[in-house]
Design a protein that fits this description.
Blueprint lengths: L2 E12 L6 E12 L14 H8 L7 E6 L2 E5 L2 E2 L3 H8 L15 H11 L11 E3 L13 E3 L19
Antiparallel strand pairs: 1-2, 1-3, 3-4, 4-5, 6-7
Length: 164
């Protein structure tokens, strides 16, 4: 079975000279397909930096990242369409919500489903479920069935949580 993610000797430094801060130094790990993993450590230990490197958001300076057996990043350089990999195979929940402020939670998820090219999935029109979980390496299946329109944006009008 192919590993979902494998990192080899990842290193990342922020800043230069006397102001340099080493966030990752020779980190290697393998996460088998179907595994649920947790990353724990004290503040400043490199957890977020590692997640960003493994999630193709901010590459490590050096090292290699393999996704489902394929080398996709080497020494900070993409060897694949990382945006496409993120869009089709990865999901993030950031420490800060990064939501569109004028939309409610459902509408924010529906937009993500539409951008992910899966605007309609089994369910009632306009319904969207965020309770689905996918182990690492397994493609999540958005459970959205927003009423499909020619636009990626929701139809105008007040949302259930909008002030009237």
């Amino acid at each position: 079975m192919t590993d979902a993610v494998r990192a080899v000797e990842l290193s990342k430094t922020y800043g230069t000279g006397s102001a340099a801060a080493v966030a990752l130094s020779g980190v290697s790990l393998t996460i088998p397909r179907g595994t649920v993993a947790a990353l724990l450590g004290p503040s400043g230990s490199g957890k977020s930096t590692l997640i960003k490197a493994l999630g193709f958001v901010s590459p490590a300076d050096t090292g290699e990242v393999y996704f489902e057996g394929r080398l996709v990043v080497k020494d900070g350089q993409p060897l694949a369409d990382l945006a496409e990999l993120r869009r089709r195979h990865l999901g993030f929940v950031f420490q800060k919500a990064n939501l569109t402020s004028f939309l409610n939670a459902r509408e924010n998820v529906e937009i993500a489903c539409e951008f992910g090219e899966r605007p309609t999935v089994a369910g009632a029109p306009g319904s969207c479920s965020t309770t689905s979980r996918s182990p690492i390496g397994q493609t999540p299946t958005p459970r959205c069935s927003a009423a499909a329109s020619s636009s990626a944006w929701p139809s105008p009008g007040p949302s259930p949580t909008s002030p009237r």
